Amino acid sequence: MRRRSTRLRIAFFSVLVVGLIFIQYSWLTSLQQSKLQAFKAHIISSVENTRATIPLTRSLNDLSATLFADLLRQSFSSNGLKNIRFEYSIGSGSAQLASPGYRQKLTDDANNLVFYYEFQPAIAQKTTADLLTVVIPDYKKIVFRDMGWIITASVLLTLSVLAILCLTYIISERKQAFYENSTNVIKNMMQQLETPLSTVSVAAEALHNAQVMRDSAKINYYQQIIQEENKRMHEQVQKYLRDMK
User: Is the dihedral of CA 102, 105, 107, 111 positive or negative?
Assistant: First the structure.
C-alpha cells in the first residue's frame, strides 16, 4: 500500500514539474518571438531615421563610409540598440558604398539578420533608388542577452518549485513512515498486553469466588498475580513509549 502511494506521489509531482517546465518553455518561446519582432521593428525604425537625417539635396553616394556608419550607429542608439554590431552596403549598380566586413557577414552565417531597404532618390538628377542592405551578426544572441534576467528568473523559479516539491515529498514520506511505525508499535503493544490483561481478568474473577474469598492464602496469591501482571504491563508500556520517541 505504501509503495503504491509513493508511486502515485512521484507521478503527481513529476506531472507538476513537467507541466511547469512546459509552461515556462512556451512562455519564453513566445517572449522570444515578441522580442525578435520588436528588435526588427527597431532596426527598421533606425534605418528610416538614418534616411531622415540625410539632406534631401544630397546624394547617398556623396557620403563617406565612416559618416554613413556613424549615422546608422546614432540611429540604432536612439532606438535602444547601443553598441550593436552591423555591416552595411548602399548604392545602386556599380556605385556601392559598403563596410569592410559586409560581404563576409552577408554569406558567412545563417544566423545573421539581413535587412533590405530601398532609398528613393533624394535629388532630381538621379532616377534609380539606392538599396541599403544592413547585416546584424548573431542577432539572436542580442535578443537572448536582453532576456538574460528573465531566463535566469524563470530557471530559479523552476528550481524553487522543484525544491519545494521535493521537500514536500520527503516530509510526506517521513509522516507516512512515522504513522506506519506508530501503528505497528501500537499493534505490537496490544499483542504484548493481551496475555497480562487476560491473566489479570482471570485473577480478578477468581477473587470473587466464594471459596477463594474464605481462603486468605488464595486471596494473597491472586493479588500477587495481579500486582505482578500490572507491573509487567507498566514496564511494557514504558518500553514502547521510549521506542516511539
Answer: negative
All 3 cell numbers of residue 184?
505497528
Output the pLDDT for position 57.
47
Mutual angle of helices 148-207 and 2-53, in 10-degree steps: 160
What tens digit of pLDDT does each residue of 228-244 get?
878 887 777 777 777 66
For residues 146-180, one letter each, b for 16 or more C-beta atoms within 10 angstroms of the residue's C-beta and e for the rest, the string is eeeeeeeebeeebeeeeeebeeeeeeeeeeeeeee
Among the listed residues 103, 123, 106, 107, the one whose alpha carbon sits nearest the alpha carbon of residue 115: 106
The structure's pTM equals: 0.54
d(CA 175, CA 167): 12
Give residues with Cβ within 8 angstroms of 36, minimum separation 6: 139, 140, 143
Cell numbers placing 142: 542580442
pLDDT above 80 (res 123): no
Sign of the dihedral through C-alpha 211, 212, 216, 221: positive
